[in-house]
Write a structure and sequence with these properties.
Blueprint (H helix, E strand, L loop, with lengths): L2 E5 L5 H9 L16 H14 L5 E8 L2 E10 L8 E7 L8 H16 L4 E7 L3 H9 L3 E12 L2 E11 L1
Antiparallel strand pairs: 1-2, 2-3, 3-4, 5-7, 6-7
Helix pairs in contact: 1-2
Bound molecules: coenzyme A (COA).
Coenzyme A binds next to strand 4, helix 3, strand 5 and helix 4.
Amino acid sequence: MQVQLKKWSAKDKMSLYNLCSTADRTYLPDRLPSPYTEKDAEFWLDFVSQAEDNDTDIFRAIVVDGRIVGSISVECKNDIFRTDSEIGFMVMPDYRNQGIATKAVAEIVSQAFNKLNVTRITAYVFEPNLASAKVLEKNGFVLEGRLRNAAIKGDKLYNILHYGLVK
Ligand SMILES: CC(C)(COP(=O)(O)OP(=O)(O)OC[C@H]1O[C@@H](n2cnc3c(N)ncnc32)[C@H](O)[C@@H]1OP(=O)(O)O)[C@@H](O)C(=O)NCCC(=O)NCCS
């Protein structure tokens, strides 16, 4: 199975819509609109195409056998944290536990350290999200801290695991 990362294009609207409509949101930020609409997909693809021009962020579709099955990004932070960045990723439920995210993270880490002016990549993981922690650890990310009760989903507070990978 070949895992590839590709730039998003306006033609990917329905793939993005399908991905985000079926996403497991349990441990995702609330900024992902819910319910997800085709208009949300259009808005995001437009945002991403502009971001691609500024060399501070990388947004990619995760493609397996010609099908978009996930999304991954590295976004630069700003101000005194401008040499740091944040990684985020998701894979469709039907494609989990086949090593797809692990390969996608390896590839985008390589791209980020080559293309972006960053010295590290940070990941924030809900403590119960063991799959995400595993993906990061398999790529050399180190658990740097546990932010107690740092995030809220619905009315439940969660510890956030703070992971980092230094160039
Ligand atoms: C996290 C996520 C991206 C992982 O994608 P994936 O393609 O299934 O990841 P991989 O197959 O590369 O690796 C998953 C690893 O976690 C392990 N794993 C999965 N569920 C687990 C669980 N409940 N407990 C412990 N380990 C678990 C798998 O066995 C695998 O490890 P292995 O290769 O050593 O066997 C996917 O589950 C997802 O999209 N979740 C929803 C969105 C999300 O939480 N994103 C992360 C935000 S930080």
